Amino acid sequence: MNTKLLCRGALVLLAVLTALYLVAPVFFVIPTSFNDSSFLEFPPKAFSTRWYEAYFQDPAWINATLNSLQIGVWVTILSVVLGTAAALAMVRGRYPVKALVSGLVLAPVLVPYVIIALAVYAVFLEMGLTQSVLGFVLVHTALAVPFVVINVSAALVSFDERLEMAAMSLGANRVTTFLKVTLPCIAPSVAAGALFAFITSFDEVVTSVFLAGPDLSTLPVQMWSGVRVQIDPTVAAVSTMLLLVTLALFASAGLVRLFRARRLAEAA
Amino acid sequence: MKRVLTAGVALSAVLGLAACGAAGSGADQLTVVMWGGQDQKTHVKEAIQPWGDEAGVTIKQDSPSDYAKFRAQVESGKVSWDVVEVEPNFAHTACDKGWAEKIDTSIVDTTDLNPEEVTDCAIPVLEYAFTIGYNTETFKDAHPTSWAEFFDTEKFPGKRGFWKYATGAIFEAALLADGVKADELYPLDIDRAFAKLDTIKDDIVFYETGEQQQQLVASGEAPLVQAWNGRIYSAAKEGQPVANEWNEHLLSYDQLVIPKGAKNADNAQKWMKWYVEHPEAQAGYSNATAYGPITEAALEHVEPEVLAELPTSPENAPKRAAIIDYAWWADNYDEVSERLNEWAAQ
Amino acid sequence: MPQEAGDAPGAGSSPAPARRRPRILDGWGLLVLPLVAFLLVVFVAPLVSILARSFTDPTTGLDNYRDFFGSPVYLDVLGNTFRISGLVTLVTLLLGFPYAYLMTLAPPLWRNLMLVAVLIPFWTSLLVRTFAWVLMLGDTGVVNQFLMSIGLIDEPTQLIRNQTGVLVGMVQVMLPYAVLPMFATMRQIDRRLVQAAEGLGARPISAFWRVYAPLTLPGVAASCLLVFISSIGFYVTPALLGGPKDMMIGELIVQQLSAVLRWGFASALAVVLLLVTAALLLLVSRIVNIGKFMGGER
Q1: How many structural domains compose chain A?
Q2: I need a surface site. Which of A44, A140, C99, C179 has the fewest CB within 10 A?
Q3: Distance of CA B83 to the CA centre of its chain
Q4: Which residues of C touch B206 (CB under 8 A)?
Q5: Domains annotated on chain B, with CATH
Q6: How many CB atoms lie within 10 A of CB C18?
Q7: Domain harbouring A64, CATH code
Q8: Which residues 26-45 in chain C show a CB within 8 A of chain A?
Q9: For residue A157, which of C3, C207, C36 has the smallest C-alpha distance?
Q10: CATH number of the CATH domain containing C187
């Protein structure tokens, strides 16, 4: 039993260090966003909210944020649908040239984005798809879909198909079985895939720099535009705000769960 | 499920294409492309928007300049950029390959410009210098005042920062340090430059962006960098312990080109004419950034404290070693880049 | 989720004999078609026209490939790319596996906090994050100052512009991609199996390794695959945190494409990268069965 305790202790220590490592840049980003200097400095020297004002006063930043969100949502929907279907086929189905298809599905992550960017840009110019939401969604979905496929495949491989047979033997049809039995079981992996897909789109710089223009830009493009000369500290302010929104969402989800649990307890 | 998806895609297609169609219509406009960030904002505000207001032309902006994107637009014939800020070696290449429109000298009067900075397809947009940027706390009493001293790690110990691209004047500095006369710099003797660089190789750090450059020298991590004068100036203005040494500075510049087939090439030429003829607009940009205006006449509109930090000021101009010969670089950039990669990786 | 040890992924994806028909395309198989069609149109078609340039630009023939294989520096860059990607994968696995495992054991509140820690990097722009490391790991940065203040080192040790810097930056970016898939599969594992093994007299450690760990393999494989192939294309982090000796192929391709404008050569680099990676993945799949997991062979 002692070794077990020791193992647990080591595990907790390692996890704490890993968590610190994961969040370390945040301790830099948040203070920097409130620094009164046009350079990213650490430690910050004087308090100021000028970079937040810079964000809210510039329609370019706001539009870019809205575009990024819109594109990200579309990409998530499209890649979850395409990717989950493909994962089902890859794990359970039979079709020709399986290895080649697996390679095809992984390839978008593998080919350096700048090559994809140039290739797609040349074609999209002809088709008038540059600077359009559709153009972004198509390219980002290609980049994001492997993340969904890999996550969902892993879940399906671990999934016990006998549960489905049980459901069907009790009279459920295929669709009901999938929606009521399979999907809930693989849901965490689908969610992880969806999250990766959203982030892939939301953070994507290289292909976006090509597709963007005066009429349509995204947040990462806006962040990277001046980087050759100087990083705009507004970037730190944007990151801080994104963090706070995410944390707020998490906290509210946690509160809702707590609230529900309490109601259940009261009902009981 | 699939039907919903198809409907969704179709819907977004309609929205997307509609947005694009609106943009394509040929109202009187000019799309300007620069490196982005605060610099571009200032440039547009001081020297482009005023022309747009005057001429009734809508100014659109894109950033950053990207040569692959430039070439792809020209090759496909669908050009959405009208005037682009580029490095002169690319301007040379673009002109040679027919990717850029010729400057119409009957519209744009180039006589007041430095002839070394004008080609068939390009005029300068700003001037800057590769200076010796140093940390004023590390070097309180004496700092290197020549490239020879910059390369002297015994007299001035510490790391030296260089830009990691071949056109960052690293070879010019090495040759000057090795005793090559400034007027005999080109064609560059790359072998000799590498031999000189070998002597300080352990003390060299390469930087990628302007942010890193300023951070290296201000933190003292590399108390000496071959710097862009404007970066050091803005850092010093923010109270950071850095300064430019102007002696033996190397003059450089960025250029403006019009991509072949640009929709608003006429407007681009007209704006160029206006820009050349409006020294106060050039000076407005210089005052904010400490990058030099393209005509002498503009210098009198520059504030005195900024003038002291400009490469073309009466005080600094005589300290110049040479102007970078980008025609040479256009021909040799590939090969020298490859050798620099190789040398750095060893 | 009840699952028997005999159902371990090593045995493949629990074939259901009833569904096995001697057809080359079945109902499940059809589901791959939308994605294949999508990728062929949006990804493959444009890519082919660019990659073809490696044989035509600037001259017709294999010159670009000859240039690549003729220069040791490019082979080094390719080697760096795989070495660094491999190391990143290893380190993320070593840090991510225990972390994901602990998430399955932790009470809900702590589990959520751990989840938040994993998700936080996602919302911090890569640009700012990378520059944060530049400032923190520099000679005058907080990490060196801390190490000196506790007396571990006397003078600043070099933490950036070398492989250490690249690893610190890249592992932090990739960790979430490793933790989440592993956590998702670990959650499905029935812990009573481990208890049963212990009840039957297995020592805890051996119960863990022989019963639990094999069940996590699909998640581990998914994580490693994701991290490895994502790492290969990295460009910004190695360019800012690495030294000239750590150049990865992504950076070289960007340089050739955007600065030097040798598009044919850049395409050749991409082709070589694709082929070598494909060969490597095939080789690995023979050893650790990611082929089966990806549905490659059954």
Answers
A1: 1
A2: A44
A3: 15
A4: 161, 243-244
A5: 29-127+254-318 (3.40.190.10), 128-251+324-345 (3.40.190.10)
A6: 7
A7: 1.10.3720.10
A8: 26-36, 38-40, 42-45
A9: C3
A10: 1.10.3720.10
User: Which residue from A minimizes the CA distance to C185?
Assistant: A155
The structural domain count of chain C equals 1
**Closest alpha carbon within chain A to B24:** A128
Alpha carbons A31 and A11: distance in angstroms, whole number: 31
Query: Residue C179 falls within a domain, yes or no?
Result: yes
Backbone angles phi, psi at A213, to 5 degrees: -170, -170
* DSSP of B99-143: -BPPP-TTTS--TTS-GGG--SSEEEEEEEEEEEEEETTTTSS--
Q: What is the ipTM of this complex?
A: 0.91
Domain presence at residue A45: no
* Torsional sign, CA A199, B35, B329, B292: negative
Q: Which residue from A26, A195, A196 is facing C124, i.e. has the nearest CB?
A: A26
The subunits that touch chain A, with at least 3 C-beta pairs less than 8 Å apart, are B, C
* Listed residue (C232, B312, C144, C195) closest to A111, CA to CA: C232
Is residue C94 in a domain?
A: yes
Minimal-distance CA residue of chain C relative to A122: C46
Look up the domain containing C256 and give its range: 68-293
> Checking DSSP bridges between strand B83-86 and strand B242-257, what pairing results, if any?
antiparallel
Residue C257 falls within a domain, yes or no?
A: yes
Reported as a single tens digit per residue, the pLDDT across C232-290 is 989 889 999 999 999 999 999 999 999 999 999 999 999 999 999 989 888 887 776 55
- What is the DSSP annotation of C104-159? HHS-HHHHHHHHHHHHGGGGS-HHHHHHHHHHHHSTTSHHHHHHHHTTS-SS----
A53-109 pLDDT tens trace: 999 999 999 999 999 999 999 999 999 999 999 999 999 898 998 888 988 998 998
DSSP B323: E
Number of neighbours of residue B132 by Cβ within 10 angstroms: 25
Share of chain A residues as helix, strand and coil, in percent rounded to the nearest 5: 80, 0, 20
Q: Is C165 on the interface with A (CB under 8 A)?
A: no
Host domain of residue A75:
60-267
- Out of A38, A77, A227, closest to residue B238 by CB: A38
Does A215 fall in a domain?
yes
Q: Quick check: is A48 in a domain?
A: no
Q: What is the rounded distance in angstroms from the CA atom of residue C170 to the CA atom of residue C45? A: 31
Task: Choose from C14, C92, C97, C127 for mutation: most chain A CBs within 10 A.
Answer: C127
Q: Are C245 and C70 in contact (CB under 8 A)?
A: no
Identify which of B16, B62, B214 has the shortest CB distance to residue A214.
B62
Give which of A45, A126, A130, A134 to mutate to test B binding, by max B Cβ within 10 Å.
A134
* A214 CA: distance to closest CA in chain C (Å): 20
Partners of B31 in the beta sheet?
A: B60
The tens place of each residue's pLDDT in chain B, 346 residues long, gives 444 444 444 444 444 444 443 444 456 999 999 999 889 999 999 999 999 999 999 999 999 999 999 999 999 999 999 999 999 999 999 999 999 999 999 999 999 999 999 999 999 999 999 999 999 999 999 999 999 999 999 999 999 999 999 999 999 999 999 999 999 999 999 999 999 999 999 999 999 999 899 999 999 999 999 999 999 999 999 899 999 999 999 999 999 999 999 999 999 999 999 999 999 999 999 999 999 999 999 999 999 999 999 999 999 999 999 999 999 999 999 999 999 999 998 8
Amino acid code (one letter) for B134: Y
The answer to whether the beta carbons of residues C235 and C254 sit under 8 Å apart is yes
Neighbours of chain C (3+ CB pairs under 8 A): A, B
